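Progress report, Aim 2. The chain analyzed during this reporting quarter is listed below.
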Amino acid sequence: KVLNENEKSLRKGIAPMSGRIAFVGFGDRYFLNAFLPESPGTGTLAMEFLGTEASARLVFPSASSVKTRIYMGPKKLEALEAVSPTLTKSINFGWASILALAFLRVLKVFHIFVPNWGWDIILMTLGLRILMLPMSIKGQRSMIRMQRLQPQMERLRAQFKDDSERLNKEMVDLYKRNHVNPVGGCAPMIIQLPVFIGLYEALLNAVDLRHAPFIFWMKDLSAPDCFPIAWMPKLPIMHCHGIPVLVLLMGLSAYFQQAMTPTQPDPNQQRMMMLSPIIFTIFFVNFPAGLSLYYFASNVLGAIQQFVLNREFKQAAPAS
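Predicted structure tokens for the chain:
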């Protein structure tokens, strides 16, 4: 088990722990300083916050001397594994650690053939889209069929507005006649959610993206995106004097993809879906540029897929 404690927890106080210790260290998102006791391996660990600094104390009561290794460096998978496979657990991927670690390894494989982390992110996005293509197409087709049934659903609601039991029966019959699953559009999105979170964690915590350039003004994929303009005043939510061009492109691509998606039956839900690109854009202003690049590439590929499906359904006869 790996225990990660932040400053807030240390200030509140943590009880000492005893047992076999694999490693003890201090780290941030990209770097780690760690002790790896070899003999003896069993001891007691006490952690606290003294003044402005965190402190950890290792006690081995029965030992007159302690043999240990020390690691001081980046949280790079190959470097950590060379010292001890256990050290890879120091990279805090959250609950999606298995997926995040797998994505990070795939990203490194792409980097062998294309030595640019920006293009590697785009290639991995394309690979994920291809893998999830059958599922996403099924969900989008279900949403389009639901949209086509809206006029009939509205007529049923008006006809049986005072008889909810009959309305539900007629709705189920309508779905069966037209081979539509009312939750078919939501299920693939729910299944894809852990995948997106795992990829988010992988890109957020990958030290390989630190100071990694992509193209043009993008000189650091681990830093928030900013096209520098020296004379421009610094905006309240920006970290530099300039414009987050990649983030704006990501927001626009998300908006166009959403506009191409079949409308939701509930007007309030539809308004929320159209507002989501604006909310995402504001959030991503201070996120690493690598994450914005992934979502931009994913939105563009998703919009192309939606365009093809919309054309397919326009050519088909509408439901009678």
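Residues 118 and 248 are 17 Å apart (CA to CA). The radius of gyration is 26 Å. These observations will guide the mutagenesis work planned for the next reporting period.
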